[in-house]
Amino acid sequence: MSTSSHRSEEPGTELGAFLRARRSKLDPGTVGLAETGGPRRVPGLRREEVAQLAAISTDYYTRLEQGRLPGASPAVLDALATALRLGPDERSYLYRLANKSDRQPPSGPRTERVLPHTRMLLDNLRDSPAVLLGPYLDILAWNRPAAAVFTDFAAVPRRERNFLRLLFLDPTVRGRYVDWSGIARICVAYVRTAAEGRDEPRLSALIGELSLRDPDFRTWWAERHATYQSHGTKTFVHPAAGRYTLH
Known about the structure:
Elements: H1 13-23, H2 47-54, H3 58-65, H4 74-83, H5 88-98, H6 116-124, E1 131-133, E2 139-142, H7 144-149, H8 163-169, H9 171-176, H10 180-195, H11 201-213, H12 215-223, E3 234-238, E4 242-246
Antiparallel strand pairs: 1-2, 3-4
């Protein structure tokens, strides 16, 4: 199994990895700092530069990134989010990671079931494709238009019936999206936020399989983007219906 799989980690480890990933995407010129100190061994901002932008000591930031602090105050987190140019979802994710030690992580697998009235609602949406997804994008239920838009979910083995998996590994589902890479990156970031603080074997297996089989997934998972986006407009292409847009 790939070492990129999600698993329970010591407090602060994921926070440090998130901070490192985000500062690696910035350069001094982008944030208004002068380039000093000669060639950089790795891309992105140095720790002391992040500390300078956030108006905190380098030692404090280093200990936070290395997981040697249990958390940080809201003022420090806000300063770090601004220094690292985090968007609203990434800012929220930063707060969740920093406050990990203040809450009891949930344990055990989630119980997911489809309520009868929810299934009835799906069946009654006869002209609109609808799929019911779990927090890790497991496909729990769908209606006939959804099967026509994406694929025959009933023909997919239950253990493989996960939208993230199909999006990367199923050529039919992957080929339905005009902007596949944009949608795929959003889904990766969404699953990362849902997975934070949980240790579930099936999720670890999914992340490990995708990391091994798809280089784009491996790269995007390591970048540690976070999003809570749950709606939007998508353009599809279908061999029979052609190109169309759904909200």
